[in-house]
Amino acid sequence: MFPVLAGLVAVFLMYQSVSAAFLILTRIGTLSTSGQVYTSWTYTGATAPDFAGTATPGAMVAITVNAITTTTSADVAGSWQSAPNNIVTGTNSVSIASGNEVVAFSLVFSPAATPTVTPTATPSALPEAGIMIWPLGLIAVGLMVFFAGRNAKDRLDEHYWG
């Protein structure tokens, strides 16, 4: 009986130690972390990012950004989310803790460029639609020279060759 009880206790303790890693950062703003742990993350967005993840259901999660801590609680499914308001442009020191678990990293935040309207030069007026006079005159003179030359050639041909 004692070996069975010892085996159950060992399995229980092993389960507790395996399942203890509940603190997972799943999202920084719109960036999915896929549960990966890195020492540095870079985030570019219109606004400072929020953080989301999972922890032990009902556990308190402390988010420390640049030495200022805010807390939130994981819901019954273990999900938590927090939007610290002290993230600055540049490098931020971030530490997320729940129980004895800590996820720490530096966050480089770069706000997305805000589109600005650049005035253009005052547009010039479009040319007036229609036919211009000088090209028509040029065409008329060209036709007169062509037919006059042709008529003169016909007369010369009749005069000399008969």
Write up this protein:
The chain crosses the membrane at residues 131-149. Keywords: Membrane, Transmembrane, Transmembrane helix. With 162 residues, the protein is of the alpha+beta class. It has 2 domains: 2-111, Immunoglobulins (Immunoglobulin-like), CATH 2.60.40; 131-162. Helix content is 29%, strand content 33%. The protein is built from 2 helices and 9 strands; from the N terminus they run αβββββββββα. It has helices at residues 2-19, 133-161, and strands spanning 24-28, 31-32, 40-45, 51-54, 60-65, 68-73, 79-82, 90-98, 101-111. The strands form 2 sheets. Strands 3-9-8-5-6 form a 5-stranded mixed beta sheet, with no helix packed on it. Strands 2-1-4-7 form a 4-stranded antiparallel beta sheet, with no helix packed on it. The longest helix has 29 residues, at 133-161. It is rod-shaped. The termini are far apart.
Report the sheet with the most strands, covering strand number, pairing sense and barrel closure: 5 strands, mixed
> Which oligomeric form is depicted?
single chain
The proportion of strand residues reads 25-35%
Q: Quick one: CATH superfamily of the largest domain?
A: Immunoglobulins
Number of helices: 2
According to CATH, what is the topology of the largest domain?
Answer: Immunoglobulin-like
Low-confidence stretches: 4-20
What is the tally of beta strands?
A: 9
Q: Kindly state the percentage of residues in helix.
A: 25-40%
| Residue-averaged pLDDT | 81
The helix/strand class is alpha+beta
Shape: rod-shaped
Distance between the termini: 141 Å
Number of domains: 2
Q: What is the CATH C-level name of the largest domain?
A: Mainly Beta
What would you report as the Rg, rounded to the nearest angstrom?
A: 41 Å
CATH architecture of the largest domain: Sandwich
H and E string = HEEEEEEEEEH
Q: What is the topology, as strand order, of the major beta sheet?
A: 3-9-8-5-6
